[in-house]
Amino acid sequence: MIPIPILIIDDHPLVAGGIAMMLRDVTWLQVACACTNAADALNFLNDNTVDIILLDISLPDTDGLTLCAQIRRMHKAVKIIGLTSINEAGIISQFLAHGGNGYLLKDMGREELLEAIDAVMDNKVFLSKGANQKLLEQFCSTGDALKNAPVLTRREKEILLLLHEGLNGPQIAEKLFLSSYTIETHRKNLMQKLNVSSTQLLLKKAKECRMI
Amino acid sequence: MIPIPILIIDDHPLVAGGIAMMLRDVTWLQVACACTNAADALNFLNDNTVDIILLDISLPDTDGLTLCAQIRRMHKAVKIIGLTSINEAGIISQFLAHGGNGYLLKDMGREELLEAIDAVMDNKVFLSKGANQKLLEQFCSTGDALKNAPVLTRREKEILLLLHEGLNGPQIAEKLFLSSYTIETHRKNLMQKLNVSSTQLLLKKAKECRMI
DNA sequence: ACATAACTACCTGCTTTCAGGTATTTTTTA
DNA sequence: TAAAAAATACCTGAAAGCAGGTAGTTATGT
């Protein structure tokens, strides 16, 4: 049985060494190469195929996110697992948005590394427990956040959703069989309730208050 | 040791019965009550305190999401776990946004229920494996999505981010020490690249393409 | 039945956006 | 070094948005 080839991209050789050590008993995985910079990695990938890439997102010569997107564009099927000390929701979501399939923190153990590899090979997204928690926390609202959000009327909610869909005033008026003046009044009331002075800020604030 | 009181809100008594059966050996948990509708649940909560609520989001008299937000406003510390057959990213994220702490699918087993209760009692967000996967999938981009996104110049990216922050043309011009005409040209070019005809649609499309 | 809230519509004046271009300068690439 | 790309700036005209209100009708709540 041919072992699954893995590429490690990390500017610290000790990291690659540590991972190789973790995987030395795993007969179905093989570290095909370890690169310490983006250029070497891209060169390697030009002539070689791997199934999995462990990618440090803090590289010296290239932004790891950009490299991730670059690799993803060229190799649609390769699984890319981010490797980092950064446990921030913004970076995690950006990494996935740039084509990543998984995200591990550098304090991971062997078990978690293998679990991640299993999951992405099974076409699943894998985040380490800490990263997963960080990402999920973004979705949550506290009682205070919900309490402070102003109450919108039925029509205001409707207008807000249509604005969020990208319709402008006249288009909303046409869709709801109302006057443009009416839409403008609702919009004005919405802007007053959320204490903003433009439609863009209205939508931004509404998102923050979880109204859309 | 006082067992943790749980409230079950589900319009099917069989569900509450099944959960009670799952938890019958768990001495540190106690089903305090099972309600079949929102009104009964709110009445119960007026006179009683529970630590955990298992909430079916498809209730007959009230939208489960609205009920969740309502309970959250009144009881900041209670842990609310959604209970549903719906495994859709939109509903999951809305449930969390309305104050939920966890989300279980109705095909869950006893182990997963206990794991969820442990996690939320530990102030963590818990999603069942299936729900978690559904939510994470939203963050990911394929090679095609990345390939098809138009390439933006340095200034275009900068303008886009500032528009996303809610600034209008003149404000961006002032911030970047450029002419308003220049900003409008960049905006026009952005709109052309993303094939839209308003700033709102530009921001919407940019989000879909993971540019912001 | 009355008061209140929500919804509807209107209007002026000003600002901003959008669409349609043109054109010069600077930076980058080959 | 020259070509190409990016950045900058300009301009008109029309449409939309925003701020400032006023005001009548309908639905809801007490």
TrEMBL record, chains A, B:
The keyword Phosphoprotein applies. InterPro entries: CheY-like_superfamily (IPR011006), NreC/VraR/RcsB-like_REC (IPR058245), Sig_transdc_resp-reg_C-effctor (IPR016032), Sig_transdc_resp-reg_receiver (IPR001789), Tscrpt_reg_LuxR_C (IPR000792), WalR-like (IPR039420), WH-like_DNA-bd_sf (IPR036388). One of its GO terms (molecular function) is DNA binding. The modification 4-aspartylphosphate is found at D56. GO terms for biological process: phosphorelay signal transduction system; regulation of DNA-templated transcription. The keyword Phosphoprotein applies. Residues 5-121 form the Response regulatory domain. Keywords: DNA-binding, Phosphoprotein. Residues 145-210 form the HTH luxR-type domain. It comes from the Bacteria. This is DNA-binding response regulator.
